[in-house]
Amino acid sequence: xxxxxxxxxxxxxxxxxxxxxxxxxxxxxxxxxxxxxxxxxxxxxxxxxxxxxxxxxxxxxxxxxxxxxxxxxxxxxxxxxxxxxxxxxxxxxxxxxxxxxxxxxxxxxxxxxxxxxxxxxxxxxxxxxxxxxxxxxxxxxxxxxxxxxxxxxxxxxxxxxxxxxxxxxxxxxxxxxxxxxxxxxx
Length: 186
What we know:
186 residues, two-stranded antiparallel ribbon, 49% helix, dDENN_dom, Tripartite_DENN, guanyl-nucleotide exchange factor activity, DENN_Domain_GEFs, MTMRD protein
């Protein structure tokens, strides 16, 4: 699973290399608007006639990508590092499958670590029911819910949450690296 994701991560890093140089931040609105200059991007790469890339850039998914990844100051991730620093490595590995596979495995390991930051914590497995357990008659019926008690608990929780500070995610924001200048090949 992670290796397939790593392959796609490499593909999109190559495909969108240099996209940050074609972003325009328009500040005439209350919230800044990010615009992607598609013609400049295709022109810099010499891919104006490429139907596939043009359709990708016209899609809603790419518009969402630009809105999420356009701000110059936000939390960076593995994709940002690939686009900024690893595109030359990816190009150099194109003719060397063992190096490419090694890099894919390294990326897959980083993806796994991102999703499982504490691998030493074991998850408790629910045991499989024994043969014939569904035939047992000693199963107690589910108890009735006390509606008054439920309302009390809800009111207590609301009272506590109004006095508590809002939870924020601990992501550290940084300046997004621009990466190397756009080349003329993918």
